[in-house]
Amino acid sequence: MKKTLSLLLALLLAAGLSLPALAENLPMLQLSVEGGSLTLTLEDNSAARSLLSQLPLTLTFEDYNGTEKIAYPPEGLDLSDAPASCDPDVGTLAYYAPWGNLCIFYQDFRYSDGLVPLGKLEGDMALLTAGTFTATLGEATENHTHSSTLIAYFTRLDNTEATLDEIIAGGGPYGSLGNTWADRDVDAIASASLTVMGDRVLGNTQAIAEMIQAETGGDLFSIQTSQSYPVYYDDLIEQGADENGNEARPPLKSSVANMDQYDTVFLGFPDWWYDMPMAVCHFLEAYDFTGKTVIPFVTSASSGFAGSTRRMQELLADANFIEEGLEVRMYDVANAQTKVHDWLVELGIVP
Ligand SMILES: Cc1cc2nc3c(=O)[nH]c(=O)nc-3n(C[C@H](O)[C@H](O)[C@H](O)COP(=O)(O)O)c2cc1C
Asked: Distance between CA 252 and CA 285 in Å, rounded?
């Protein structure tokens, strides 16, 4: 049955909540670069505290490995009471102890020894894409309060262990299905879920989330599961079908620290089996959305929201759920900025 469903989908396409130890009693920091700034929530460990004692710092960051930006603080950080390793995501600020450098991850990367977690950057990661840039790290200024808009999204790219190199080696035209159905060995990773924007490779839903962010200035949050999804596309398709069939609730890796401050939540996800990924259901069940305005957006091969609308109506019964969500086909993601803008104008969110 699963195989039949997989085949059907192939044909269609061919056409416990664990919280990171983010510190609540440490000040919110701000990383300022040309064009804007991102907020930084520190981890509660000795390395993060010794970085804090050196602030404000102005540093020159350089690209490393197409994955992270690195810079050297004037003094080494105190490792006496800090984790000796971590599994960085997009937005992780870490300290690579063997070399003594700070690292800002703008691509997901694997679990690494010697990588000490320092905190989580939130905001427009596109501000950090220049090859080399100068940034000032200091306490958040009064006028850099959090936005009241959250853009929460799920994307396959943030939920697999694949590195950018592996994804590119996977080949296939970006934004299309690639040829993974025919030969998984040759084309290990499908590119149905990738969008190239400038020199960055983004998940399709992430790309739309960033377009919304550019228009609204909201805070971005990537919904991620504790367990990585399969890198092979056909295995992922099967797992998605299983999870949907079983009404699974995959444990989530991190949580929105301050959901109370948001009155508008954009919720983005890829269509998985004419529904939302079950991790997104889990996200909706993990918070109280009463009184919040929730505006959905979806990327898909062709189905759009499909059955997810009914699910959102049920799960968001106490919220102001806006049914006029945005549907973007995966082939159109890279050029969707105007569509995103027009939609936000129609909703009265931007002038
Ligand atoms: C498990 C799985 C199930 C999918 N089911 C559908 C579907 O039912 N209808 C559809 O049009 N696209 C479907 N797709 C395609 C994705 O919705 C599409 O590639 C999306 O843009 C991926 O977004 P992402 O890169 O943010 O993960 C599915 C993809 C996966 C991995």
From this structure: 11
> Which residue out of 5, 12, 13, 275 has the highest number of ligand 1 atoms within 8 Å of its CB and is therefore the one to mutate?
13
- pLDDT tens by residue, the chain, 351 residues: 444 444 444 444 444 333 345 544 678 888 988 877 888 989 999 999 999 999 888 899 999 998 999 999 999 999 999 999 999 998 999 999 999 999 999 988 999 999 999 999 988 788 887 788 989 998 876 544 567 999 999 998 888 876 655 655 544 333 333 323 233 333 333 345 666 666 566 788 999 999 998 899 888 889 999 898 887 777 888 999 999 999 999 999 878 878 888 999 999 999 999 999 999 999 999 999 999 999 999 999 889 999 999 999 999 999 999 999 999 998 788 889 999 999 999 999 999
Domain contains 94: yes
**Domain annotation covers residue 1:** no
Torsion angle of the four alpha carbons 38, 295, 252, 157, in this order, in degrees rounded to the nearest 10: -70
Ligand 1 binding pocket mutation candidate from 211, 272, 280, 327 (most atoms within 8 A of CB): 272
Question: What's the total number of domains in the chain?
Answer: 2
Q: Which domain holds residue 130?
A: 29-139
Is the Cβ atom of 160 under 6 angstroms away from ligand 1?
A: no
Domain boundary among 101, 120, 139: 139
**Which amino acid is located at 81 in the chain?**
D
* Tokens, residue 188: 């290990």
Is the Cβ–Cβ distance between 167 and 189 less than 8 Å? yes
Specify whether the CB–CB gap between 198 and 324 falls below 8 A. Answer: no
Span from the CA of 145 to the centroid of ligand 1 (angstroms)? 35
3 state DSSP class of 85: strand
**Of all atoms in ligand 1, which is nearest to the CA of residue 301?**
11
CATH number of the domain within which 107 lies: 2.40.100.20
Domain assignment present for 17: no
Instruction: Tell which one of 196, 211, 300 to mutate to probe ligand 1, the residue whose CB is within 8 A of the most ligand atoms.
Output: 300
